[in-house]
C-alpha cells in the first residue's frame, strides 16, 4: 500500500505512522528522517539542505521532493510506503502525483488525523522535557511528574521548549492551515481521503486507521 498521513502538529502522526508501517510491513518515510539521513551521509541534496538551514532559510521544495523521490525508489519501498510529513504543500503533492504516474503507480489512501485545535495546543504546550541528556518527557496533565518541575527518573530540571509555547504552537497551526491543509482537498478530489479521529489512546487511533485501510 502507498499511504500519505496528514494531520496538524500534535496529532500523533509520527507515533501512528510507526505503528501503521509495522502492521502493514511497509517503510515509514518521514521528512525528518529524510533530512537527517541525507545530511549525515553528505549526499548532494543533504549538502544543499544544510546550506539553506545554516543560512536560516527554508529548504526549497525541489530539495525535499528530490529526497523523497530517492527514498521511494529504494528497494524496500517497491511494495509500498507510508509518507509522514510529505507532501507538505500543494506543489509537493503535485510532484508526488507526477512521480507516481511516471512509475505507473498511485496512492491507495490518504489518512487525515483530525484533532481539535485547542486539544493540539493542550498536547504540545503541556509538554515538559528533562534537561539531562536522557531528555525524559512529561506532560503537565497527561503524565505529570510527582514533583512539579522535577524529573521522576533522574531528578533533573523540567523545562518547556520554546517550540512548545502556546503562541508558537498557534503559529505552527496557522502555517499548517494555510500550507498543508489544502492538500486534503487536493486528495479528496481523487477520492483518497479518510478522516480519522486522533482523540483517544494510541491503540484506539491505530485501530481506526487500520479499519479505514482494510474495511470489512
List strands and helices in order, with pairings:
Blueprint: E1 2-6, H1 13-24, E2 28-30, H2 31-41, H3 44-54, H4 61-72, E3 81-84, H5 90-102, E4 109-114, H6 117-125, E5 127-130, E6 137-139, E7 158-159, H7 166-180, H8 182-188, E8 193-197, H9 202-213
Parallel strand pairs: 1-3, 1-4, 2-3, 4-8
Antiparallel strand pairs: 5-6, 5-7
Helix pairs in contact: 1-9, 2-3, 2-4, 3-4, 4-5, 6-7
Ends distance: 17 Å
Main sheet attributes: strand count, strand direction, barrel closure? 5 strands, parallel
What percent of residues adopt helix (DSSP H or I)? 40-55%
C-alpha Rg (nearest Å): 18 Å
What is the CATH first-level class name of the domain at 2-115 and 180-213?
Answer: Alpha Beta
**CATH architecture label name of the domain at 2-115 and 180-213:** 3-Layer(aba) Sandwich
Query: Residue-averaged pLDDT, rounded?
Result: 94
**Number of discrete helical segments:** 9
Q: CATH superfamily name of the domain at 2-115 and 180-213?
A: P-loop containing nucleotide triphosphate hydrolases
Predict the CATH topology of the domain at 2-115 and 180-213: Rossmann fold
Strand order of the largest sheet: 2-3-1-4-8
Number of strands: 8
**What structural class results from the helix and strand content?**
alpha/beta
How much strand?
Answer: 5-15%
Uncertain segments: none
Categorize the overall geometry. globular
Order of helices and strands: EHEHHHEHEHEEEHHEH
Keywords: ATP-binding, Cytoplasm, Kinase, Nucleotide biosynthesis, Nucleotide-binding, Transferase
Main location: cytoplasm
Pfam families: ADK (PF00406), ADK_lid (PF05191)
Pathway: Purine metabolism; AMP biosynthesis via salvage pathway; AMP from ADP: step 1/1
Amino acid at each position: 500500500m502507498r499511504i500519505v498521513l496528514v494531520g496538524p502538529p500534535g496529532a500523533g502522526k509520527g507515533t501512528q505512522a510507526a505503528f501503521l508501517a509495522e502492521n502493514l510491513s511497509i517503510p515509514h518515510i518521514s521528512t525528518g528522517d529524510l533530512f537527517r539521513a541525507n545530511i549525515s551521509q553528505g549526499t548532494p541534496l543533504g549538502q544543499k539542505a544544510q546550506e539553506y538551514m545554516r543560512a536560516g532559510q527554508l529548504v526549497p521544495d525541489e530539495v525535499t521532493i528530490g529526497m523523497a523521490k530517492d527514498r521511494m525508489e529504494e528497494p524496500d519501498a517497491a511494495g509500498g510506503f507510508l509518507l509522514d510529513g510529505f507532501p507538505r504543500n500543494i506543489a509537493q503533492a503535485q510532484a508526488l502525483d507526477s512521480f507516481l504516474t511516471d512509475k505507473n503507480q498511485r496512492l491507495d489512501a490518504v489518512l487525515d488525523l483530525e484533532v481539535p485545535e485547542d486539544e493540539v495546543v493542550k498536547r504540545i504546550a503541556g509538554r515538559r522535557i528533562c534537561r539531562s541528556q536522557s531528555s525524559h518527557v512529561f506532560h503537565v496533565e497527561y503524565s505529570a511528574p510527582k514533583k512539579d518541575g522535577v524529573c521522576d527518573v533522574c531528578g533533573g530540571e523540567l523545562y518547556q521548549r520554546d517550540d512548545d509555547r502556546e503562541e508558537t504552537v498557534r503559529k505552527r497551526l496557522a502555517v499548517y492551515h494555510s500550507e498543508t491543509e489544502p492538500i486534503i482537498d487536493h486528495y479528496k478530489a481523487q477520492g483518497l481521503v479518510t478522516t480519522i479521529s486522533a482523540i483517544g489512546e494510541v491503540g484506539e487511533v491505530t485501530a481506526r486507521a487500520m479499519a479505514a485501510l482494510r474495511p470489512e
